[in-house]
Amino acid sequence: MVDVEKCPYIEYKIQGISGIVAKEEKSFCVKDDLIIQIELKQEGLEITGLKVLLKEDSVIDEQVKQTIRRKIERFLVNLYGNPNVYVSEFSMGILQIFNPNSKKAQYEFSSTLVISAECSCAIQCNAHYFKEMYEKQVPEDKADEVYPLLFSTMRIDDIFVRYLMQYEILLGQVTKEHTQKEVTDYIKKVYNPANKDRQIGFQLTRRPRRKYKEDDLTYNRNLLGHGDIEKAVSEEKIRQLSRSIMDVLWFSLWNKAE
């Protein structure tokens, strides 16, 4: 039996992820070649940190740090796919390292400035949900491309710019010809029929002399992308659509993986 008190660990301080928190149990074990357990740190409605426990004989060098960071980035991106998650002023940094098997100092410390994100409510999930989000993976041929792209969008503070980038990622994942019509068809024929509780709406296109409908994600992308000043889109509206676009994106990726 593993004595977790003796296990090396890396503790991260996280800013800007809210809307989802763990219930009573904050720790979960995972199937991984390096990590044995992850403990969620949270305050109020926000996830404020992660304590990542490694296998007892691990030595935390720079390569291990980079590997663990990539694994945690993927985990956070998976959480980002939950439509209840609110991402604002996101940052992540190492707070503390316990490295008992190292010939150098056992402890390393760093400091991270944390500013609270704005969020008025959060769903509560059990530890098993977070375990699933850690272990869930997109198809291998997509992972190296999609995870870094989506993690980079989490760092974009301007929600309008973030939304435009998310839409481009969606174009790359659900279309063959990189057209908006394919996005609309995918939402109408694939996503909406499978997600009755969180439908994407449709609106008549604003293109002159055209009568077809665009899905809400495409319609608002075009308002922003074309600099349409006649019909402004609120920041809160785009935040809602940003969460919806992540939901559609993860639906498409995870269904390819199954």
Our count of helices gives 7
DSSP, total strands: 10
Straight-line N-to-C gap: 33 Å
Order of SSEs, N→C?
EEEEEHEEEHHHHEEHH
Protein architecture, described:
This protein has about 260 residues and is α+β, with helices and mostly antiparallel strands. The protein folds into two domains: about 5-135, no CATH class; about 140-255, no CATH class. Helix content is about 40%, strand content about 25%. It has seven helices and ten strands. Strand 6 (about 85-100) and strand 7 (about 105-110) form a beta hairpin. The two termini are about 35 Å apart. Residues about 110-120 have low confidence and may be disordered. It comes from Faecalibacterium prausnitzii. This is Apea-like HEPN domain-containing protein.
List the helices and strands and how they pair.
Blueprint: E1 9-18, E2 20-22, E3 27-29, E4 35-43, E5 46-54, H1 62-80, E6 86-98, E7 107-109, E8 123-125, H2 127-135, H3 140-154, H4 159-174, H5 180-194, E9 202-204, E10 213-215, H6 216-225, H7 235-257
Parallel strand pairs: 2-8
Antiparallel strand pairs: 1-5, 1-6, 3-4, 4-5, 6-7, 9-10
Helix pairs in contact: 1-2, 1-3, 3-4, 4-6, 4-7
What features would you highlight for this structure?
10 strands, alpha+beta, elongated, 258 residues, 2 domains, 23% strand, six-stranded antiparallel β-sheet, two-stranded parallel sheet
What's the short version?
It contains seven helices and ten strands. It has helices spanning about 60-80, 125-135, 140-155, 160-175, 180-195, 215-225, 235-255; strands at about 10-20, 20, 25-30, 35-45, 45-55, 85-100, 105-110, 125, 200-205, 215. The longest helix is centred in the last third of the chain and has 23 residues, at about 235-255.
